[in-house]
Design a protein that fits this description.
single chain; alpha/beta; 4 helices; 5 strands; disordered N terminus
Length: 126
């Protein structure tokens, strides 16, 4: 269900490690589903696990995969750079460790001014 609004929308890219059935991924789908109609959400995920891809699309986000083949696969770095270069985002919101690392470095290099991160686990689990 795509949300509709009038006027200018805030373009937000959520970058996450994957779209498996984990807590961070379910929370991300909830954030998108309950966000303001003035937000234009995009979700970009690094890994290949994509069980929630359809749900995230159904609640109103454009969804893109960087086709990472294993945890901490470096090949998606170039794909992410091109993804950011070809689009314009007001905010980059990163979730989970690898997405936070890649997002902060590549997002800043691509000129995204507003980058925020949500830590979804307690520090003792790292």
């Amino acid at each position: 269900m795509k949300r509709k609004s009038s006027g200018t929308k805030l373009s937000v890219c959520h970058l996450i490690d994957d779209l498996s059935h984990g807590g961070a991924q379910v929370l991300l789908a909830d954030i998108i589903e309950h966000s303001s109609a003035s937000v234009d959400p995009t979700v970009c995920y690094i890994g290949k696990r994509s069980q929630l891809h359809g749900r995230v699309e159904a609640v109103g986000a454009d969804v893109y995969s960087l086709d990472g083949q294993f945890r901490f696969d470096p090949r998606p770095v170039d794909r992410l750079w091109r993804f950011f270069r070809d689009r314009s985002f007001d905010i980059l919101h990163t979730h989970l460790v690898y997405a936070q690392l890649m997002g902060r470095i590549v997002g800043r290099a691509a000129g995204i001014k507003n980058i925020i991160s949500t830590y979804h686990a307690v520090p003792g689990s790292y």
